[in-house]
Amino acid sequence: MPGGWRGLVLAALIVYLIANVVLSFFNEGDEPVISYTEFSKQVAAGNVEKIYSKGDAIQGELKGKQPVPGGKGDYTKFVTQRPAFADDQLWANLTQHQVTVTASPVVEQRSFLANLLLSLAPMLLLVVLWVFIARRMSAGMGGGMGGLGRKTPPKPVELAGTERTTFEDVAGIDEVEGELNDVVDFLKNPEQYRRMGARMPRGVLLAGPPGTGKTLLARAVAGEAGVPFFSASASEFIEMIVGVGASRVRELFSEARKVAPAIIFIDEIDTIGRARGAGAGMGGHDEREQTLNQILTEMDGFSGSEGVIVLAATNRADVLDPALTRPGRFDRTVVVSPPDRAGRAAILRIHTRDIPLAPDVDLDQVARTTPGMTGAELANLANEAALLAVKRGRAQVGPADLSDALEKVQLGAERSLVMPEDERRRTAYHESGHALLGMLRPGADPVRKITIVPRGRALGVTLSAPDADRYAYTEDYLRGRIIGALGGMAAEQVVYEVITTGSESDLEQVTGLARGMAGRWGMSERVGRLTAIPSDGQSPYGLSAAPATLDAVDHEMRRIVDDCYEEACRVLREHRPQLDALAEALLANETLDEKAAYAAAGITRLEK
Ligand code: ADP
Ligand code: MG
Ligand code: ZN
C-alpha cells in the first residue's frame, strides 16, 4: 500500500502545481480597476512609478501604497481606462512627474516559452500517460519479448545441453520427421553443406490442425540438433503500440544469430501472415504488415550459412500471404496431419511411458476406437485415465479407466442435472432418432454409444465412429450424416410434433455439411463443379462468386437439407416400433453401448 499512497500524493502535487501555473496566467488581471480621476490624482501627486498603455487602457504601478478608493485594502498595481473625451495633458503630466511610460499591451503577453509550454502541456500529459500504460503492458506480459519498458532481450527457451525434446517424444508422423531430418542434419553439420555450396531452406512451415504436434516437432528438431530454441507466438508481436512488433522481430533474429546455429519458432504465424487485404486482424493492419515485412526482411537477410532456421506453425495455411511461402522464405511446407491408427497407438505408448498400465490394457484397441483424435487429445486421454485411476484408488490404470476417460474426452464431462420426466423422455427420443437413422443406413458410421445423461452442453449424446480411418467422403455418406444429424429433430417431430431448441448444434453441423456439398465439393448439378465458397466462409475480396452463384448455393443447401429431413421423418415413421423400443431402453438404462443399442433396436450390425 505505501506505493499507492506515494503515487496518490505525487499525483495531487502535480495537479496542484499545474493548477497554480495555469491560474497564474489568468491572475494578471487581478489589479484593482481605479477611476481615471483617482489615476490623475496620483499622477499629480507624483506617486506613479510606471505605466503600460495600449490604446486608452492603462496599467501601472504606484511608488507608494494607496488605499483603494471605495474599497478595502491598499494597492500599488492598478488598471484604468482613459475616457476618449479627456483632454488633460496626460503625456505632459507624465513626463513632468518622471513616470516611465511603455507602450506595451496592457495585459502582459505570455512569454514565448510560456506559450509553448502551455500549448504542449496536453500533449506532454498524453505522452506521459502513454509511456506509463506501455510500461504496465509490457510488464504484464511477463517478461515478454520486449518493447517499451523492456528489460531483457529475447532468450532461447531451451538451451543446448539441457534435457531436450527429441524425435523420441514424437510419434505417428514419421513422414514429417523425415522431412525435418534434413534440417536437423544441416544444423548439426553446417560445414558440410557449406562446402558443397548447398543452401538450406530458410524457413519451414508446419501446417496442420491444432494438437497435431507442430510445436512439439519444432522443439524436437532443436533438441535433435542440439541447438538453442527461440520461441515466439506471432500474436505476441502485435501490440497496441505500432512499430513495436517489427523491433521485437529484429531483436529476436539478432539474438538468434549471436548463438547460431539456432532455431526460431514462430507459432500461429497466420495471425500476422494473413494475405494482405483479408479482413483486418487484431492490432490493425499496419502493425501486422510491418511485423510481417520485418520477418520477411530478416529472412531475406540470411546469407543462408548463418545457421538460423525459422520454423513456423499455422493451422490456417490456406489464408497465408503468398509472400511468405515464396522461395527463399518459408520454401518448405510440411503438412502435419492427425495420426492414423498405428500412429495413435504409438502416441499412446509415448504418453503412457510413465503411467503404470494393467497387463490387460490393449493400447492398439484404444487406438482403434479413437479415429480422428489428435496427439494432444490422446495425451489428454492418457492423463484423464491416470487421474481416474488415482481417484478410484487403483495401483494401475486398467481398461475401464481408459474407456471411461475416453467417454469423458469424447462426450464431455457428466453434468448432474435433474431433468423433468417429460424432457428426459423427449431427449431419449431425440437421441434414438439420431441413432436409429445411423443404424439403418448402410455405409454410415456405426453407433458406438448413446446416452441421455447430460454432458457438457448437450442433454444427450449419440456417438458414432467409423471402423477405420476415413480420408475422403462420398456424397452418399455425407447425405447419411445429414440425415443422422437431423434425426433428433425428426424424431421429436414425428413423436411429439414439436420442435425444441435442443437441435441447435445438430443444425449447425447440418448447415456446415450442406454448405460444403453445394458450395465446395461440387455435389450439386445446379451450382456445378466449382468452389463457390472459400473454406473459411469469407472471401478476402468481398463476394467469392457472382451473387447468382451464391444464390444457387443457398438454394441447393436448402434443397439438400429439406430432402434429408423428409427422408429422416419418413424412415422414422416407417420404423416407429424400433424407435419406441430404443427410446424405452434408453430411459431404462440411461446409457447404451454399441451392442446394447443395436440389440434394443433389433438390428444386426452389418459387418463390413
Ligand atoms: P500443435 O502445436 O500442433 O497445436 P502441440 O505440439 O502443442 O500441438 O501438441 C500438444 C501436445 O500434444 C504435445 O505437447 C504432446 O504432448 C501431444 N502430442 C501432439 N502430437 C503428438 C505426437 N505426434 N506425438 C506425441 N505427442 C503428441
Ligand atoms: Mg502449438
Ligand atoms: Zn441432437
Describe this structure in words.
The chain contains 21 helices and twelve strands. The two termini are 72 Å apart. The chain is α/β, with parallel strands linked by helices. Magnesium ion binds at residues 214-215, 267, 313.
Keywords:
608 residues; alpha/beta; Signal recognition particle alu RNA binding heterodimer, srp9/1; Rossmann fold; Helicase, Ruva Protein, domain 3; 5-stranded parallel beta sheet; 4-stranded mixed beta sheet; 49% helix; binds adenosine-5'-diphosphate; binds magnesium ion
Overall average residue pLDDT: 83
> How does CATH name the architecture of the largest domain?
Up-down Bundle
Structural class: alpha/beta
Helix content: 40-55%
Bound molecules: adenosine-5'-diphosphate, magnesium ion, zinc ion
Q: Report on the biggest sheet.
A: 5 strands, parallel
Strand order in the largest sheet: 6-7-8-5-9
In CATH, what is the class of the largest domain? Answer: Mainly Alpha
Number of strands: 12
According to CATH, the homologous superfamily of the largest domain is Peptidase M41
Principal-axis shape equals: elongated
Radius of gyration: 40 Å
CATH topology of the largest domain: Methane Monooxygenase Hydroxylase, Chain G, domain 1
Ends apart, CA distance between termini:
72 Å
Q: Number of helical runs?
A: 21
Please indicate the count of domains.
Answer: 4
Assembly type: single chain
**Percent in strands:** 5-15%
